[in-house]
Amino acid sequence: MTTQTSLSGNGDQLKTLVVVFLRGGADGLNMVAPTHDDGYYRARPRIAIKASDATRLDGQFGLNPLLADLATPYRDGALLVLHAAGSEDATRSHFEAQDLMERAGEVAGGWLGRYLRFRGAVTSGALSAIAVSRALPESLRGAPAATVMRSLDDFVLGKNSGTLQAGLKKLYAAQADALGASARDTLDALDRIQRIRETTYVPAAGASYDRDEFAQGLKQVARLVKARVGLEAVSLDLNGWDSHLTQSAIMDPNMRRLNAGLSAFYRDLGKQMEHVTVVVMTEFGRRLAENSAFGTDHGRGSVMFVLGGGVRGGRVLTKWPGLTKDVLEGPGDVPVTINYRDVLAPILQRHSPQVDLAKVFPAYELKPQAVYG
Amino acid sequence: MNFSRRHFLQAGSAASVGALAVGCEKIEVPAALRIGPRTITMPEGPFATPSGKDIDLVSHALNRLTFGSRPQDYQRVRKLGATEEAAFAAFLDQQFMPERLDDPNCENAIRRFEVLQEPLGELFEYQEKHLLDALVRSTVLRAVFSERQLYEVMVNFWSDHFNIDPSKGDAKWLKVADDRDVIRAHALGKFPDMLRASALSPAMLWYLDGRVNKKASASDKPNENYARELMELHTLGVHGGYTQQDVMEVARCLTGWTVQETHRSKLNLGSVEFQPLLHDRGEKIVLGHVIPAIPKKAKPGEIERLGRAELDTVLGIVGLHPSTAKFIATKLCQRFIADEPPADAVSAVAEKFIASGGNIPATLRALFATDAFLTTRGNKLKRPFHYIVSALRATQATTDAGSAIQDYLLRMGHAPFHYPTPDGYPEKAAPWLGTLLWRWNFAVGLSNNTLDKETQINPEKLKASFATEENQMAHLLGRVPTADEITACKASGAPLALLLASPSFQKC
């Protein structure tokens, strides 16, 4: 049995899911603008993205110029955009909506944690789930072996532990059972991480990661993916999307980070993106109409991105409801026409064909979206 | 709950009630317990350690019936009888009467968590984070410091069996009461009593949606969540012989039980009520037993009486059912014997479960008397909680069970009260095999004193607990070390870390 097989249970087909959560309610309407919907321009006379500035995606939508680099994976067919997506939560409260989305309903534990428990593989490797943050996010609650990663230093066995590792190798060599096999895998993983730590990382294909936390987090993820340490799920946050006032001052830096981070990651991983799926989501979108402070208030539907992992990209998947008064919800919000679970479910199934989706998304009737065409 | 048990529970927790309980008329706090930490005289070494090449019966008992040996435990238990067998028997007698074991260390360790003694409604006055922290920490501290080890081991077992993840709804507050009034109250009591307490536990009514299981109008469909888990996980087991129809019928029997919720009311928060108007009054058939319809002409009081009684009827049908006996016996044998326990041991335990009316101590005594239990030693993988606690006990560590400990438990996916689904943390080894890296890291951190300043060992004192280094090794291994182990320890320069990380210390 190779290390990979026993660490992850899915051998050479090891797949890594990277969930990027845009906290604060990201304005999908200005990230992927409905440039052919008059309703959009009528409601946002001052802050709308002009069709001429946007990067055309299809006949209906254009990318915010600050996300223009995402057009590359989009044209490569590796980036799928979903619009008017989100959750059923209508409280428009950050806390409630994030909580619901990360748990997937009024249930215990997080959906990512339940996925790892019920994905059909009995054993989880020590490094199967990582949160690149300071605390374990709700979504990973209940996961087996979930690690909050501050740095790669978290994955070493004390300082100068060479002799200790030699002792462990010797004692576990005599263990013929599963515990022995697992110990040998773990010692292998430690060796690999040790090698990563000792070398300066040079991203492939000239990719370059910015200095911000988000890009650096993605860089660590890329290193771990390439080192094949059995990474199956990663949670990463990009915070601060709550653009009530002067929207561009709040959103623009974040969009730049998202654009640069994802682009570097995509370039760096190259062909390996086939085994890595990045999902970008947010708890809710913003109100269609701009407010008097050049901002937008809490709304409902927003965008989701799915990058890599064999997704059939180059499309904007949506049941676009239009932006007329009769379809807007509540105080004037884009309704949610695609539930985020229906985007996640087929991805989880592709990563782990044996996954028990009823346990991951309980009390919900799945209508999986055709993310793979 | 009989008097002695109630008294024991109050005494066990009274120290932690402390100042809050003073002046409160409802809870009697023995005066001796009100005056600050109790003084403890620690036994002094060097202590005798196991001398066999294999794990002897005393070490075996300490491995399985406790969360691991402290330096003094082997000698203490071995001295309880002239032979290993006699010592084991005497140890069992002690452990089955936890109320008679003085527990000053544990009382001192948990006295600060007075919130755990708050009556139901008062719990809502606290932040849920605070409650979860108190629950997790007191659970770890009790496992580490209590003399009532078998009781704590069974609390751990039943917490999984009747698992509730408090992150759901009002269970955030109510799990504290469930832990106290269901799990701890009955962990060494009678299974039918625990089952009934669980069925009427407001946290359980939240967690498995019993609170919304109602039949107010013809179109209402009962919520089957609790009914299904009651049979699948709490009693009969998934192959226990019930059908989907039985699930629906049981759900109908349980319609009308609700909880006062935070959303709706400020009065009697968390209290469980039976609402006759929400009860399905039709005839039901549960596992072949006919429960007659409540007569149309019945007066409100009569409806209430009959409706409430259906809960007891259902629990009476499933509580001591042969499938339940087999299911519980299998789980107990998995916990105490092996991941795949032999069938004859399971049958012996199941028979005693029924014959004793679900008496948990009697059932356990039958288990501990099986050949399978007595002879299958050192083969179970400790789950991460057991591993961490046993390492703290083995090294006589001081700890506050704070973030250093909780981080490790979270990383290994085994923090108390963090398991999302109602089946509870898995018992078998396979799901835990990926946790070695963190066990080894913990072993290193604990022996280097680099975890944090609240969790510390005293290496000199630990050394002084044993006459020789090899005796200390025997203490950690439960047997004398092999030549390989001695060489590896000497070569490593970190014998304590290596032994705590060694394969033998992962097992029990």
Layout of secondary structure:
The complex is a heterodimer of chains A (373) and B (508).
Chain A: H1 3-8, E1 16-23, H2 28-31, E2 32-33, H3 38-43, E3 55-56, E4 62-63, H4 71-76, E5 79-86, H5 94-103, H6 111-117, E6 129-132, E7 146-148, H7 162-173, H8 178-198, H9 213-227, E8 233-239, H10 247-269, E9 276-282, E10 302-308, E11 315-318, E12 338-339, H11 340-351, H12 357-360
Helix pairs in contact in A: 7-8, 9-10
Chain B: H1 3-21, H2 57-65, H3 73-78, H4 84-95, H5 104-110, H6 128-145, H7 149-161, H8 171-186, H9 191-199, H10 202-207, H11 225-234, H12 244-253, E1 257-259, E2 272-274, E3 284-286, E4 289-291, H13 300-319, H14 322-336, H15 343-355, H16 360-368, H17 371-375, H18 384-394, H19 403-411, H20 436-448, H21 459-464, H22 469-477, H23 483-492, H24 495-501, H25 503-506
Antiparallel strand pairs in B: 1-2, 3-4
Task: Please tell me about this protein's structure.
The complex is a heterodimer of chains A (373) and B (508). By secondary structure, chain A is an alpha/beta fold. Chain A is 34% helix and 15% strand. Chain A has one domain (3-153, 209-360): 3-Layer(aba) Sandwich (Alkaline Phosphatase, subunit A). In chain A, strands 1, 5, 6, 7, 8, 9, 10, 11 and 12 form a 9-stranded mixed sheet that branches. In chain A, strands 2-4-3 form a 3-stranded antiparallel sheet. The longest helix of chain A is centred in the C-terminal third of the chain and has 23 residues, at 247-269. Chain B has 25 helices and 4 strands. Chain B is globular, with a radius of gyration of 24 Å. At the A-B interface, α6, β7, α7 and α8 of A face α19, α20, α23 and α24 of B.
